[in-house]
Every structure is written in structure tokens, then in C-alpha cells.
Backbone:
């Protein structure tokens, strides 16, 4: 533990976290960052629902309401759901494939810090009183029309955070392709690793369009461009295409890792191999591929014409087939198994009916002529919350309980976990089920208030009550986390007792080099195979214990991101303030100097000696 | 135990039934009570797709419930070791092909209706004398109000669309500032009003609006367009063809026979309002503010406030309070005195073309 272990105290700990390139620590940082923004987005959601609790309410103004819905959507998608999933990917994927770290630890850290500074940039808009207000989709005519700097915060903040996401995606691709332990063939990878792999490939292709779109928007708003200004020959529909060419794959980037988490949990707590593993992998890849073919179903009412609408309608329906395959494979995994209803399993079991409902309403909207009615009504609000909350958020909560012992070495309370589930699950259905009907009854989405006498009062009231229950559930979970952390009761390698994959074969939390010796993988569910053979060590090493090469930590990723953060303010104010342009140049130059420092200074890392590894192993000898 | 379970089942069945009975919404705005061919087609597609989807849900929930009941560890014992099944090709094929068949059943009518509802070829058709065969309405969406021009009839109105029943009415849709979306839930799905191109579609109105709660169908803006997006409502009045023709004639007459309910009010109007608002229904699209020729006939002030003189005066005094971000200036007492405002309100309320 060379440099780190010798120092102690708050300053040293802080420095360690700011400079860490350890995938497990970055995973924890992603988790904390994501949960922070999840709380922000949740508070925004609560205010939205409280505003709509009764007709003609004036809790918030119309302008503030649009700020809230925009920030709620943007925060939840970009700053909460994705980072939390990245947290799990970081913490777990290298362990699952038997690697000591990700392929590019430095870039991993850079990706995280860009997410943090991008997210801060976006949210600092609240202090300026000029908040993005054109919806998380920021359709061009409205986003160009929007006064103040609100949409500028959106464009630049997402640009910075999106860059981080792209880096993280590339990093996971390379990690999974190159860093698998001997014997870990593609068709032996756990499903969570597979879904991370496909989601990362999707990030690689989906985020560049967003980057381009945001640059166009930035140039239109801050540098007198005319990409979307139709009076100058631009076209606003282009934005919609660019946004959804990114935006639809984005939905699958979120849901595929969620599928992966549930696949692990179903197999573990049914004590049974995942049913139809090959089909599951194939379905994942197919969903990832089809995810790029259906973006125009978000645009059925734009007027693309019947031929385009018909093609995209049929393509959209096709996605239901691989998704259905997955659902039935999960059902057949628990069928004939030995189901233990732990908290993670409870979330997984809650996920199936919830997600099926969200999925089928998706197919209904795929029927273009029907979508003319459903589009931009409350039906769509219900639909995407059913897939995102009923899929992604339930997966996040499930993963949190499932992997918490692996990440922190202590178990979240099962009792409180189940209480959280009951409140959250009931609240979720109470909030969103009725919204399908609100859509049928003619209520458009994104409305700041509604008039009395349209038959919408009771459903909206019910919906708000449901949202409050969800909030209670979440608060119980926070209490659970605090109590667990304070108690800090340590657990062993495989606290659930039924672990099947490699991460459960090493201590919780794992040593910073993960595996004393790289493991040899002999099949799917590596640990399960060892267990069935009665192996004592739970890992068959592929090599003798030798010195391990590890990367040094670095503060440069944080400073590079800080430079971009500063440059963002310069870009935003360069048209109205004389200091804008110098600040823009300074920020970019600062980032560039940091990049050069990284490139020019050789950092060869350090070695963990064989003696130290053997010492660690001996110290933990009696832990079982 | 079993008895209790049965009762519970009956109860939940009744509850579901009650939701569906209560679930039709209000006639003037609900997609569940289609008042035209387009909405009916879409409603049929809804029934078909809901049916198929309900089937899927039932199958999934059935397998799920049985698995949960039968395979709990608490029942099987802590040491039970399930067989490690790899998969089943037969089953995989079954749950690949059955969904494909179900989707085909849905896809065929989907494609059919997509083309049917997108067919606007008849829009420009003219008879032997060169008159348009079908009614065409040009809709322009503006920051928080709607303008409706009838190009073949030479008239224009705002906020309240008037159309004949039992025939196809064709629409040209465009937005003047930012993107909006034109939606009359009870009559048919929405179509966006883009800023750069005209979108075309048709609707048919098969129910007279007279019997409805407010005597009108409700129309909505469905695309986020700024602070007052929620208030960008319009209303639709559907009349039998002969009454519609009478209305058109009355509208065409508003230029030569203006209605003056209050002469002082007319003077105030000429001083303060006429720059943006017209009181003659003859004209074209492109006005700064909504055409007021039928103001007295409408049932909302500014598209959403109760239609009375109090609200009208409140509105003129402070438009931003009611509809933030709209482009109409407010008029203080210095600009229009209280007495003048009373006269103006009476004058405006008197602007009627229907009896």
C-alpha cells in the first residue's frame, strides 16, 4: 500500500479520494455522486407532484415549473441513473472478469470528474436564477427562444458530463475485451458484464450525436450560429433527429445494465443457473442493435409522413421480441429454482410485473396512429416512468442491496430494505398507473397546472400521494444506509451464501489489487463451479503469486475537468462580458496544460510485492 | 380461508370493473369517447393493442405467480439444490414466435391506419366550377393562442374553431414562433405545428358539440412551448353543415355590418386594441393578436378563463399574471380608465355572429 497507507488523517483521506484511480473507489464515488443528484432530482419531482395535487394550484410559477421538469428529467437521466449504474459497473465488472483494474484507470478517473463538474455546472444554474427550461429534450425552436442563460447551462453542462460518459463507455469496452482472466471467454461472462459491454458499445455510438447536437445548440445560442434557426436556413427538426438518435439508445444504455443486475440476482437467489444464457446474450445484443433503428418513434407526430411512420412503427414493435425472450428466461430461471426472497430478490420480483407493464405500453405507442393520441400526453409520462423507475430505479435499489456488502464490507438491513421496497413499490404504482388514464382523458404532459372540471382532479391527487410514498421509501433507505454504516458489522466473501460469480470469491471489500493471483475461469458461474467441486480456496489461480503492477493516483483528471468547468462559464458570458473570452481561453488552456503534463511526465506506477500479498493473505487467514 | 380468498377475488374484480366504468373520462376531452372517424380508428387500435397486451400480461403473471408459490426456499428446504438447467430450445422458439405472431396481428392494422390517416390527397380537390370540394382550415399556432383561417371562404377566427359535422375537414398546420402541437383528444390524435414546414392532416367531426358540457370540444397544445404551455387551450364548435354555412355567411358579413354593443367601448378599442386585434372576421392569418369577431360567442377569455366581463377586465389589466410569457401588453388605469374598461368589456362581449 506504499504511499497511501503511511499517511492518515482527514486531509490525506480526502487527497486519496480526489486522486484515486482504483476502480472500486471510483465506483463508490460514482455511487455517491449519483445518489446526491438522485436526491436533487427527487426533490424536484416532489415539487412537481405537489404543484399538480389540485387544479389551479400556485405553489410554483409557470416558469419555475418548466425549470423543475427540465432539471428533473436531465438530472435523473444524466446525473443520477447513469452514474449510479457506472458505479456498479466500476465496482463489479473488473471483479466479475477477474481483472485488477479497468484498462485505463486514469481515463476512468477523468470520466468521473467530468461527470461531477458537468453536473455541478448544470445545477449551478439554480444559483444564477437562470435554469434550463426547454424540457430535457430541449427542442430547438423553444431552446433557441428561451431567454437568459438557462439553456446554455444545459448545453455546456451536458457537454462536459457527456464527454465523461463517452470516456467511461470506451474504457469498459476495452476493459471487457482485453482484461478478462484466462478462460473467461465471451460466452462465460456474467450477464451484468455482458450488458455493460453492450451498453458501452451503445454509448460509443450514441453519445457522439449528442455531442454534435449540443455543439450546434451551443454555437446557435452563444456564437451566432444558425443550425436550427429556420429563418436563416436552419432546421429545428434536425435537432429532434439528432437528439433522438442519441436519446433512444440512451434508454437502452440505462435499461440493459439494469437487466444485467436482475439476471445476476435471479440466478443467485433461485440458486440456479440463468435459464437460456445464450439466448439472453443474443437478446441483449439484438436490443442494443435495434435500439439504434427506432428513434423516429419519438417523432410520429412531427409529420414525417406515413411511410416513415409505418417503418419505424414496425421496427419499434420488433424490439418487443428480444425483450419478451428476456422476461420469459427470467421466469424460467426462477421456475424450478429455490427462491429466497431477500431484499434484492424482492426488487427483482417487483421488477417483472412493473417492467412488463411499461414494455407493453411501449408497444402500444409503437402503433403510430394510436401514438398520435398518446404522444405528449400523460400516458407517455406513465410509460417511461414504468420502464425507468420500474426497470432502472428498481435495479439500482436491488443492486445497492445486492452489492453493498461487496463494495463496503457490511450488509444493509434486510428488514429496512423490505420496508423501503413496500413503500417505494406501492407508491410507484399509485403514482404512475393512474397517469395512463390521465393521458387517455386528454391531459397533455409538461403542464404547469390544469383547470378544474376536466375530470383530472382525483387522478392527479392520487398520483401525488403515491409520489409521497415513494419519497418515504427512499428516506427509509437513506436511514438504512446510515445505520448500516454506523454499525459497520463486517461480512465475509460471500455474504449471501449463494454467490455464483467471481466477485463473491474474494474478500468484501476486496484488496485494492483485487486478486492475489489472476483466477482461472473454467466456465459460466465461475465460483459456483468451484463450490460444486468443493474447492477450498474458491479460486483456481491461473498463475503463481508474483509482484503486481498498479497505477499511481493522480490529481490531473480532476484539474482537467475543472479547466473545462471554468471554460464553460467563459463561453457562456463571452457575448455580454469582457472577461468572458479570456476566461474561456484560460479554462481551455488550463485543461490543455494538464493534458500535456500527463503526456510528458512518465508515471510508471508501482509494484505490490509478493511478500506483501502473502502477508495480506495470512492476515485474513482466520476470517472465515 | 378459501372462502375469504374468493370474496377477495370478487372484490378486486369489482374494483377493476369500477375503474373501467368510471374510466371513460369527460365526453368533450376524452379519447375514450371518440367523436369522429379518426378518433374511432385510433380507439379501435387501442382496444386491439390493449387486448393483445393484456394477454401477454396475464401469461407472464400466471407463470410468475405459480413459480413464486411453488419454488420458495422456505417450502423446499434450506438445503434443496435445484437442477442447473441450461435452457430449452423448444421453449425459446415458442416465446420467440408467439410474440412475433401477436405483433404481426398488431402491425398490419397499424400500417393500414398509418396510411389511411396520413392520406391528404383529397385536400386540393376542386369541382367542375373550380370550388374546393373539401373544407380546408389553416391553423397557425402562436405563443399561447391559435389562429384559424378558412382560405377558401375568406374568413379568419381565433381560439374557437368552428367546423361542420360529418365530413372530412383538412388542416394545414404551422407555428409562428416556437413549435406547438394541435390536439383535439375526442376527435383525433395530434399533429405538431412545426416552425419551418406545413403539416397536413384531416379530422372528421361526427358529433355536434351543442349537447356537451360547455357546448364545445376541448383542444390542447401538446408540445412544451414555454411558461404558459398549460394554458394554450382552444375550443371546437361543431355544427351541422347548414348551420355552419350560416355561420360562414355571418362571418363574411362582419366587415360591412359591425356589431357595436357599446359605442364608447368601440372608441377605446380603436385607440388601444386595434393595432393587434381585428373585429372583422374577413381576412387572413398573420395577425398580432387573436381575431375578436366572434369574441362574444366564445366560452373562454384568453382561451382558459371563465367567460365573463370581470375576467375580461382582469385579463386586460394584467395579462402576465394570468398567462405568463404571452405577448399581449397589460393596460393600467392610466392607459384605460375603469369607466373605459367597462365600456370596452361590454363592447367586446357584444361581438357575436351566432344568434
Residues:
Amino acid at each position: 500500500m506504499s504511499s497511501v497507507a503511511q499517511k492518515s488523517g482527514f486531509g490525506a483521506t480526502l487527497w486519496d479520494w480526489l486522486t484515486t484511480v482504483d476502480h472500486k473507489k471510483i465506483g463508490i464515488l460514482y455511487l455517491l455522486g449519483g445518489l446526491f443528484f438522485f436526491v436533487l432530482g427527487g426533490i424536484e419531482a416532489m415539487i412537481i407532484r405537489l404543484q399538480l395535487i389540485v387544479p389551479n394550484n400556485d405553489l410554483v410559477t409557470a416558469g419555475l415549473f418548466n425549470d423543475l421538469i427540465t432539471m428533473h428529467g436531465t438530472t435523473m437521466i444524466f446525473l443520477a441513473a447513469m452514474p449510479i449504474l457506472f458505479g456498479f459497473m466500476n465496482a463489479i465488472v473488473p471483479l466479475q472478469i477477474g481483472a485488477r483494474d479497468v484498462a485505463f484507470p486514469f481515463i476512468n478517473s477523468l470520466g468521473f470528474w467530468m461527470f461531477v463538474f458537468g453536473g455541478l455546472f448544470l445545477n449551478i444554474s439554480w444559483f444564477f436564477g437562470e435554469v434550463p427550461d426547454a424540457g430535457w429534450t430541449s427542442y430547438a425552436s423553444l431552446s433557441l427562444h428561451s431567454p437568459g442563460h438557462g439553456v446554455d447551462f444545459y448545453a455546456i453542462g451536458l457537454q462536459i458530463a457527456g464527454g465523461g460518459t463517452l470516456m467511461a463507455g470506451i474504457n469498459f469496452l476495452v476493459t471487457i475485451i482485453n482484461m478478462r482472466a484466462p478462460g473467461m471467454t465471451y460466452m462465460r461472462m456474467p450477464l451484468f458484464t455482458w450488458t455493460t459491454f453492450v451498453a458501452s458499445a451503445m454509448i460509443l455510438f450514441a453519445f457522439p450525436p449528442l455531442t454534435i447536437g449540443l455543439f450546434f445548440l451551443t454555437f446557435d445560442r452563444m456564437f451566432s450560429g444558425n443550425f436550427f434557426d429556420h429563418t436563416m436556413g436552419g432546421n429545428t427538426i434536425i435537432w429532434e433527429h439528432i437528439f433522438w438518435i442519441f436519446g433512444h439508445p440512451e434508454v437502452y444504455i440505462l435499461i440493459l445494465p439494469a437487466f444485467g443486475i436482475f439476471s445476476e440476482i435471479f440466478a443467485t437467489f433461485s440458486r440456479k443457473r440463468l435459464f437460456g444464457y445464450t439466448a439472453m446474450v443474443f437478446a441483449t445484443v439484438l436490443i442494443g442493435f435495434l435500439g439504434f433503428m427506432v428513434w423516429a418513434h419519438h417523432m410520429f407526430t412531427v409529420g414525417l409522413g406515413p411511410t416513415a411512420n409505418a417503418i419505424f412503427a414496425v421496427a419499434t414493435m420488433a424490439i418487443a421480441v428480444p425483450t419478451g425472450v428476456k422476461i420469459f428466461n427470467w421466469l424460467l430461471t426462477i421456475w424450478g429454482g429455490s427462491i429466497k426472497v431477500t431484499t434484492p430478490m424482492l426488487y427483482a420480483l417487483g421488477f417483472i410485473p412493473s417492467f412488463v407493464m411499461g414494455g407493453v405500453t411501449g408497444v402500444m405507442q409503437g402503433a403510430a396512429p394510436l401514438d398520435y393520441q398518446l404522444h405528449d400526453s400523460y400516458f407517455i409520462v406513465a410509460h417511461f416512468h414504468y420502464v425507468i423507475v420500474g426497470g432502472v430505479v428498481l435495479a439500482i435499489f436491488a443492486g445497492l442491496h445486492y452489492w453493498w456488502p461487496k463494495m463496503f464490507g457490511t450488509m444493509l438491513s434486510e428488514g429496512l430494505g423490505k420496508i423501503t421496497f413496500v413503500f417505494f413499490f406501492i407508491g410507484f404504482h399509485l403514482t404512475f398507473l393512474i397517469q395512463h388514464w390521465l393521458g387517455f382523458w386528454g391531459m397533455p404532459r409538461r403542464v404547469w397546472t390544469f383547470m378544474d372540471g376536466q375530470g383530472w382532479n382525483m387522478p392527479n391527487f392520487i398520483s401525488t400521494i403515491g409520489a409521497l410514498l415513494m419519497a418515504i421509501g427512499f428516506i427509509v433507505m437513506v436511514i438504512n444506509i446510515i445505520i448500516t454504516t454506523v454499525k459497520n458489522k463486517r461480512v465475509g466473501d460471500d455474504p449471501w451464501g449463494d454467490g455464483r460469480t467471481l466477485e463473491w470469491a474474494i474478500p468484501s471489500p476486496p484488496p485494492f489489487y483485487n486478486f492475489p493471483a489472476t483466477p482461472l475461469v473454467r466456465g459460466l458461474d465461475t465460483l459456483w463451479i468451484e463450490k460444486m467441486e468443493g474447492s477450498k480456496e474458491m479460486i483456481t489461480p491461473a498463475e503463481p503469486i508474483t509482484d503486481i503492477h498498479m497505477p499511481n493516483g493522480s490529481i490531473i483528471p480532476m484539474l482537467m475537468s475543472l479547466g473545462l468547468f471554468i471554460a464553460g462559464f467563459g463561453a457562456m458570458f463571452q457575448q455580454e462580458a469582457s472577461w468572458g473570452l479570456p476566461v474561456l481561453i484560460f479554462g481551455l488552456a488550463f485543461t490543455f496544460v494538464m493534458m500535456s503534463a500527463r503526456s510528458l511526465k512518465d508515471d510508471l506506477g508501482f509494484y505490490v510485492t509478493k511478500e506483501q500479498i502473502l502477508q495480506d493473505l495470512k492476515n485474513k487467514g482466520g476470517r472465515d | 380461508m378459501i372462502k375469504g380468498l374468493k370474496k377477495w377475488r370478487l372484490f378486486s374484480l369489482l374494483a377493476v370493473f369500477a375503474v373501467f366504468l368510471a374510466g371513460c373520462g369527460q365526453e368533450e376531452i376524452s379519447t375514450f369517447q371518440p367523436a369522429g372517424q379518426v378518433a374511432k380508428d385510433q380507439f379501435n387500435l387501442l382496444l386491439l393493442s390493449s387486448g393483445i397486451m393484456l394477454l401477454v400480461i396475464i401469461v407472464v403473471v400466471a407463470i410468475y405467480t405459480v413459480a413464486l408459490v411453488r419454488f420458495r426456499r422456505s417450502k423446499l428446504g434450506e438445503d434443496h439444490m435445484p437442477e442447473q438447467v441450461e435452457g430449452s430450445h423448444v421453449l425459446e422458439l415458442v416465446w420467440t414466435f408467439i410474440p412475433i405472431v401477436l405483433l404481426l396481428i398488431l402491425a398490419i392494422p397499424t400500417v393500414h391506419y398509418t396510411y389511411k390517416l396520413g392520406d391528404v390527397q383529397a385536400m386540393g380537390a376542386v369541382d367542375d366550377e373550380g370550388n374546393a370540394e373539401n373544407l380546408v382550415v389553416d391553423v397557425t399556432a402562436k405563443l399561447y393562442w391559435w389562429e384559424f383561417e378558412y382560405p377558401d371562404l375568406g374568413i379568419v377566427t381565433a381560439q374557437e374553431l368552428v367546423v361542420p359535422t360529418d365530413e372530412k375537414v383538412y388542416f394545414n398546420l404551422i407555428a409562428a414562433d416556437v413549435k406547438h402541437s394541435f390536439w383535439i383528444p375526442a376527435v383525433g390524435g395530434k399533429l405538431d405545428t412545426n416552425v419551418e414546414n406545413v403539416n397536413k392532416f384531416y379530422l372528421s367531426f361526427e358529433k355536434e358539440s351543442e349537447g356537451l358540457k360547455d357546448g364545445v370540444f376541448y383542444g390542447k397544445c401538446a408540445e412544451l412551448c414555454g411558461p404558459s404551455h398549460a394554458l394554450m387551450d382552444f375550443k371546437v364548435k361543431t355544427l351541422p353543415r347548414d348551420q355552419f354555412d350560416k355561420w360562414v355567411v355571418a362571418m363574411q358579413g362582419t366587415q360591412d355590418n359591425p356589431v357595436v354593443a357599446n359605442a364608447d367601448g368601440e372608441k377605446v378599442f380603436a385607440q388601444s386594441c386595434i393595432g393587434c386585434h381585428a373585429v372583422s372576421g374577413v381576412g387572413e392569418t398573420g395577425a398580432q393578436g387573436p381575431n375578436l369577431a366572434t369574441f362574444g360567442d366564445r366560452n373562454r377569455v384568453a382561451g382558459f378563463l371563465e367567460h365573463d366581463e370581470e375576467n375580461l377586465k382582469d385579463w386586460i389589466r394584467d395579462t402576465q399574471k394570468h398567462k405568463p410569457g404571452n405577448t399581449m401588453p397589460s393596460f393600467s388605469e392610466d392607459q384605460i380608465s375603469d369607466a373605459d374598461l367597462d365600456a370596452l368589456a361590454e363592447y367586446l362581449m357584444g361581438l357575436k355572429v351566432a344568434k
